[in-house]
Amino acid sequence: MAEFRLHHLVRQLLDIAGMKDDTPKDFVEFLQKKITTDSKVVTSGSPVIIQSIVQHLAQNSPNPQQFLSKVEDLKEKNVDSLCEYVQLLHYISQDASLKDFLQKAGKKSDLLDSHSSHTSLTSTTNVTKEDLQQVKTRLKKAVSQQSQGKESFERSKIFDKNMPATSTSVTSWVQRRPSMSWDFSSTTLTANSKMLIENIPADSQENMLIEDLLNILIGLPGCYIDPLPLRDQYSPREFHISDTIEPSLKELVKQILPLASHYSTIQRFTEEKMRFEFGQVCNALAECMGSLTVEYTLFITQLETESRSGNLNLHKMWFYIQKNLHNLAIMSNIATSISKSDARGGKVLSLLHDQVTGYIGDAKAQQLCLHLMQAACVPYMKMLGMWIYKGIISDPINEFLVEDNEVVQKEDMPVDYSADYWEKKYTIRRERIPKFLEPVSDIILRAGKYLNVIRQCGKTVNNKVQLIEYKIEQKHYIDAIEKAYKYASKTLLDLVINEQDLLGRLKSVKHYFLLDQGDFIVTFLTLCEKELNKDVADVVQGRLESLLDLALRLSSSNNDIYKDDLRTELLPYDLQYQMIKILTVLSTEEREVTFKTKKKLSLTVIESFAFSYEVRWPLSLILNRRSLACYQMIFRHLFYCKHVERMMCQVWRSNKVAKAFPFPEATQYRTAFALRQRMLHCIQNLEYHMMVEVIEPHWCLFMQKISKVSNIDEVLSCHCDFLDSCLKDCMLTIPDLLTTITNILSICVTFCKFMQGESALNIGNTPQPPEQMESFKESVTNLDKQFSEALKDLLDQIHGLNKEGSDHDRLYNLLYRLDFNSFYTGQFEQLGLRKIEIGASG
């Protein structure tokens, strides 16, 4: 499927680039070679190599400084696949022709944009009095909103910028009550207090600065230290110190102020991330940071007590804050990284995990990061526990790594089941996976899926939910996840194979769709012979259902307990059209095949007939619509071959009257009888190849594999491999071979109708006149020529397949069986020599 996906993407790129006449085949082959040869180079790009590439690109860019600043900004935001994107730019910069093409395409798009903007500006609209009244009302409303205050407006702008568009939001208390924020909510300063410090001696200035610093360190405005406006919402807070302060004291204050800047960053982070739309992980992390800032404010309170008792100076303050300065710097760095990258859920945990592993040499810093990580992990691990122990997703803000796509509703599953349920209902969102859970992400997905299926079958899940905690040693939570997965896998496998009798169902499907029950097929063909030759419009499907039920009761299939689930179906297309539509990817060459294989307007019942099978949940996971469609295609191919063989046998039975003719008259039918035998030999060998040399060996291998499976995904994989192998070796997935075989079968049907039809020459109880015999011989010779050419094409196509690979080994058995003892090869060679001799003599 990856190849078809790549083919589709290349086709789209060519259409966008305006290269619709080019075929994507060559591009796909080139990309596949590059993917296989350059995979190691791409995945092993070290930071040193990436940095050298960035420097090289910056040198060649029109504005190197702007380019480097943009790369650094993307690094700070932890943008995914940044290294791969830089390498892509490097490859483009080395290809001069590609650069020219992109520049031309960019100029065209700029021209189109300028033209559209010009037309929009020059377009005139008629303004009415009602429009003017609406504008007036809106202006009044905007002016009234500005009365809420400049700072409130700025805060709402900051907090609303990162709010998810899809989530419902409640106005933050910081917006409603901006003065309640502990991040410099007001800046009311008195000019007199600032002027008084000029006349105070340097020794006395220190006490005033300490009092100012104690306010600044908890987000309150000071008299001589002013917080400057933020450059952007996530930039560090900067301060302005009065110029009248003694220089030595000013330098000490500058050393202490980074603590206030870190506190400001953390306070903004906690006030923003406490809102529910940022997710439970961010809420838990903000709450943990808030509890740590409470401890920090207690420390500032202790400093204030020391100051009031006269035991504190700036040097002591600088000494006391060292521990908190280091801790708040770490927390500020974490808050800035999360905010700039707009991280939520699993991405937040990945950033925290990097911090924990990054401070291996610093035990105290690592312990702080571990504390934050464990607090942030609590809601995520609760979601994980509910999923792997109960199969339930409790994720209101879309943070969990597994997403429920709601493709199929539970109440519709037994009636209208789609194979998309297993593949698409529950999917992994790679950007939400925490790094420490990446090795077991697939196991997590399958464990919950298995339990979800068990619950929907009405079974109770008696798996006790255990608390999973984050620890530096991965063994703790990895073992818990693997244990839950083994329980879910074993429970669902036991339910499907033992309680639901999966093997019995598969054998029942094999009986009917793969013609394993021979007497049933013969009985059904005998009962439905007249109906199968009619047009679809002239047949009542209820009659076919009745004949099917009668055939089941009259044959050995009466002992099958699942026989009542078999149904008949009349499809609106024949087998060849169905297979070509499935296999064709619309490239230039393959469009011709599609146009040649047009849908028939009128179909006979034998061309549109197929069995269907009713399957209930949870067996519909394995016998889904996709697999039943594969079974149907194999059945239609086999069933049509059986029908043609039966027609050939009827011709043989009706031609036995020729034995009563005198020898000279009987020899006139020799060519027709020989052609009939060659056709019968071809059809029977095709059936033998498909049923004995393809289906039966693959079925035995499938049964061996399914007896060793350990989970449902392995059952699905084995079943899919079995069907794919059968389709391939039955020549249904090779369009040229399928077209040739369909042509051979149609020639055989034409021959049978000619030998038995009302408009053709019939073989009666007496020899026919010479004039009619000449017409009969010409028709038989024409059919013989068509059949020989079609058979020659089939043998050449099989012979032309790649002998070096093992993909088509079984087809060579068919080649040797059809061309036994080089019978046809010798005839074709003699025919070619005769044509050459006739051409030379002519």
TrEMBL record:
It comes from the Eukaryota. It is found in: Cytoplasm, Cytoskeleton, Microtubule organizing center, Centrosome. Residues 210-499 form the Gamma tubulin complex component protein N-terminal domain. GO terms for biological process: cytoplasmic microtubule organization; meiotic cell cycle; microtubule nucleation; mitotic cell cycle; spindle assembly. Pfam families: GCP_C_terminal, GCP_N_terminal. Residues 502-824 form the Gamma tubulin complex component C-terminal domain. One of its GO terms (cellular component) is centrosome. Keywords: Cytoplasm, Cytoskeleton, Microtubule. One of its GO terms (molecular function) is gamma-tubulin binding. PANTHER family: GAMMA TUBULIN COMPLEX PROTEIN, GAMMA-TUBULIN COMPLEX COMPONENT 2. Belongs to the TUBGCP family. Component of the gamma-tubulin ring complex (gTuRC) which mediates microtubule nucleation. The gTuRC regulates the minus-end nucleation of alpha-beta tubulin heterodimers that grow into microtubule protafilaments, a critical step in centrosome duplication and spindle formation. Plays a role in neuronal migration. Component of the gamma-tubulin ring complex (gTuRC) consisting of TUBGCP2, TUBGCP3, TUBGCP4, TUBGCP5 and TUBGCP6 and gamma-tubulin TUBG1 or TUBG2. TUBGCP2, TUBGCP3, TUBGCP4, TUBGCP5 and TUBGCP6 assemble in a 5:5:2:1:1 stoichiometry; each is associated with a gamma-tubulin, thereby arranging 14 gamma-tubulins in a helical manner. Gamma-tubulin at the first position is blocked by TUBGCP3 at the last position, allowing 13 protafilaments to grow into a microtubule. This is Gamma-tubulin complex component. The lineage of its organism: Eukaryota, Metazoa, Ecdysozoa, Arthropoda, Hexapoda.
